[in-house]
Amino acid sequence: MLNTAFKVDIIDRVIFSRWLRPPSKQDIEAMEAHMAMAHKRLGQSLLYVGSLDSKVKVPNAEERNNLNALMNAARNYCEVAHLIIEGSDLQNSLQRVIISGMLIITRTYDNFLSVHKSVETTADDLSKRLNKDAGPVIRAARDRGLVV
Asked: To which H or E segment does residue 125 belong?
């Protein structure tokens, strides 16, 4: 069955997801299943890179709860999570600021989740964690439509 909410693929040990709309509870369960399967297959912690298309609407309260559930689940399978909120519109900028602020306010700012405007700003951290240049991994993800 084709998932219309997100695309997902694993490159090296980086699990990329591109969200095309805010997630439902079922979307989160499907994404968690992808993470669990990849974690088991690779036998090591994953590096999560999730991107939100700049045209995705701002999530409502239920969808925000779903995203929180995803981040909590990701901690079981991933050593780090990078969230890319694309776009330069005010809405996109505010989303990045609000999410970053909520991490601090809720005291969940523990270097697990970081918020970015583009995938390029994840390259240094991914390279360090992969112990090699993450450029080819990012290019492959871009070629597969997982990041822009």
From this structure: helix 123-130
